[in-house]
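Annual report, structural modelling task.

Input specification for the coenzyme A complex:
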Amino acid sequence: MTWASHAIAGVPMPAQIEVRSSTFDDRQAIYDILVRSGVFGRGDAECVDEMFVETWLSSREDNYRWLSCWCDGQMIGFACYGPESLTDRTWDLFWICVSPEARGKGAGRALIAEAEAQARRAGGRVMVIYTSSTPKYAPARRLYESAGFVRVAVVPDYYAEDDDLNIYWKRL
Ligand SMILES: CC(C)(COP(=O)(O)OP(=O)(O)OC[C@H]1O[C@@H](n2cnc3c(N)ncnc32)[C@H](O)[C@@H]1OP(=O)(O)O)[C@@H](O)C(=O)NCCC(=O)NCCS
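The model returned the following structure:
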């Protein structure tokens, strides 16, 4: 799927953003995007890397799905999503991250839209996203809200003292 990012008067050519299924070759780029995110640490990157490798080693029906976002030959973001086990067609968006220099151009929106579309095509009923209440996740919360997700629950002090869990929900 290709999206033209928002055209702004005076800017020569809007960048073409393309979202496609990740390949195993995207492994290092995903790791690097996480480490440079300013939000996630190396521990998070290791955790995502394990999930990524597990995906290619397993053929389970409820496996993780991965999307990579490209612009001008560069991988600028990724998303990981998939069906939540032991539910009836509930899908989760587990991870989403865009390179700092590529933010604000619609990549996050394009990744979510494609994850939703794929989940819908696979029979998904609802999609859920967990995120933190802290200021550094404000762009993520705004992205989810602008994509039509509704904050349906807050679990106080879930991640840490003064760091609540926000649960976002959308019917697919
Ligand atoms: C959250 C994140 C993925 C957004 O990616 P992005 O490519 O910058 O988002 P987009 O350009 O597609 O913006 C999508 C919407 O979110 C809003 N948004 C995104 N970042 C914003 C910011 N910093 N301030 C205000 N609004 C913002 C945009 O206004 C836009 O809404 P609109 O389409 O109604 O105008 C990116 O900031 C990121 O990687 N953050 C670090 C990782 C992270 O927090 N991941 C989520 C963990 S739960």
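The two ends are 18 Å apart (CA to CA).
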